[in-house]
Amino acid sequence: MKNNIAVIGLGSMGYGIASSCLRSGHLVWGLDTNIDQVTKFCKLGGQNSSLNTVINDIDVVLVVVLNSTQTETVLFGEEGVVKKLRSGSVVISCATVAPNFAKDMEKRCKEFGVLYLDAPISGGSVKAANGQLSIMASGTKEAFEAASAALKSISETVFELGDEAGAGSSMKAVNQLLAGVHIAVMAEALTFGISQGISPEKFIETISKCAGTSWMLENRAPHIADGDYEPRSSINIWPKDLGIVLDVAKDAKFNAPITKVALDQFSAAVDMGLGFEDDAAVAKVYAKSAKISLPQKT
Amino acid sequence: MKNNIAVIGLGSMGYGIASSCLRSGHLVWGLDTNIDQVTKFCKLGGQNSSLNTVINDIDVVLVVVLNSTQTETVLFGEEGVVKKLRSGSVVISCATVAPNFAKDMEKRCKEFGVLYLDAPISGGSVKAANGQLSIMASGTKEAFEAASAALKSISETVFELGDEAGAGSSMKAVNQLLAGVHIAVMAEALTFGISQGISPEKFIETISKCAGTSWMLENRAPHIADGDYEPRSSINIWPKDLGIVLDVAKDAKFNAPITKVALDQFSAAVDMGLGFEDDAAVAKVYAKSAKISLPQKT
């Protein structure tokens, strides 16, 4: 089924998602505060007309912004879309947010007859561009149905985690806890290895075949070996996402000491001015403290 | 080439290693303070004669004990084998030890004309039994040559990490840092998930296909889902191995805060009387603190 889809947020994830929707033959409106991204997307095949003029014909709104504040603004701010959408259309919300925020958005959408899918994404910008994301989704049966064509265009796997918003965001929080800690401890182990005379190449070659490996280690350690900190996913993501994890944990009176220490490492990286570098740059926190040298880009 | 091999230590790893040597057609003497294990191994095909009566014909001594103290005792204690071994025989030392300890053992073996391979192992008891271990090895060319037939019998992969003892143990320390943290943070994430209504089964099904996965998560999380804490590898390993990591780090003025917090979780598990349970039982530390229930064995 072909849908009329609005993608709000054309960053590294949103642009790939919007492009994947185009490839599936949907009509796609791309929106972003960065006009260059919008223009680029129109050239790729995105619709030129103003979203407001077609808002009654929109089936799906994919919200691919950074956080809960931006999500709330695009949905319910002064220019928010929800109040304009036709009844039965669906919002697919992809940002990492607290489960209670997702529940609140679902409730407020319902007041306008708009369906809501709590649908955080995992997989990075390359998988976004290839329509191969993993989606941790929860929402009503109606929301899943209304979202199904769009989900099919952008994802390889949709985990159906429950019949109301919140469950998707809870699972995303669990995933981010692990992913963030795995990046930070990869940096801890790799730089510890350097202090013992083990080169990053030897580290990757050996550990990726041993019990100490992780998805993040295999994905991010090569960035350090190459001295390449072009942001595929930036340091700034982690104080935000691990902060959400710790807020949710605190509400549940759950103590997450490893997460807290990993967050401290990313915060130290931000303090060093590395916020916009690739998240593998957390290794620089360890290198500075131990006075060891990391590989430079050749 | 068939060797005469002594395997000292017939615990869960050593017994598998000795059995793998038997399957390759070597003559194998199994030694352990636990006579039941020795008897069992003789029934499997191990040699009955006293090691002392054949010590001149021994080519390889595989030391598969728990730690550096036991390693030093079997090599250089009152009944230590090194002084009795013929010149040109090789000690393959498999325990997780500090790199400097391995260097010292190599030096002391050399005084007796005995070769030494620093050869910590990774892979667990099933891979030990199947002759499929990963070995992080370093030592002289002569030591590698003398050890080659035995290594072939017990391992799938031998990482050759350098021409002197120490490098193997350094890489093992790096691997243990990661493996230990990954177990502890898996427990942190899985129990955090329970606090948010995510069952261990749903956790495993979803996260093992997402960016938050790790080798240890996929291997250990099912123990928690099954409520099965029969020790495949026990809690007690980790205060020891992460303690070695932190000692080595301290010597190198390297700060490893995530490792330290993970060690704290395993120490808390020991304090709860869980030292001899499977290391996945570190989840019980989190469950107790957050007052949540873990699955029981059915």
Number of helices of chain A: 13
Portion in helices of chain A: 40-55%
CATH level-4 homologous superfamily of the largest domain in chain A: NAD(P)-binding Rossmann-like Domain
Number of domains of chain A: 2
Mean pLDDT over all positions of chain A: 97
Annotation, overall tally of beta strands of chain A: 8
Second CATH tier, the architecture of the largest domain in chain A: 3-Layer(aba) Sandwich
Largest interface: A-B, 69 and 69 residues
CATH topology (level 3) name of the largest domain in chain A: Rossmann fold
As an assembly, this protein is: homodimer
Tell me the strand order in the biggest sheet of chain A.
2-1-3-4-5
Strand content of chain A: 5-15%
Note the gap between the termini of chain A. 48 Å
The CATH C-level class name of the largest domain in chain A: Alpha Beta
Structural class of chain A: alpha/beta
Tertiary shape of chain A:
globular
Task: Describe the 3D structure.
The structure is a homodimer of 298-residue chains. With 298 residues, the first copy, chain A, is α/β, with parallel strands linked by helices. Chain A has two domains: 4-165, Rossmann fold (3-Layer(aba) Sandwich); 169-290, N-(1-d-carboxylethyl)-l-norvaline Dehydrogenase, domain 2, CATH 1.10.1040. Helices cover 52% and strands 12% of the residues of chain A. In chain A, helix 8 packs across helix 10 (215-226) and helix 8 packs parallel to helix 13. The longest helix of chain A has 29 residues, at 167-195. Chain A is globular, with a radius of gyration of 20 Å. Chains A and B meet through helix 8, helix 9, helix 10, helix 11 and helix 12 of A and helix 8, helix 9, helix 10, helix 11 and helix 12 of B.
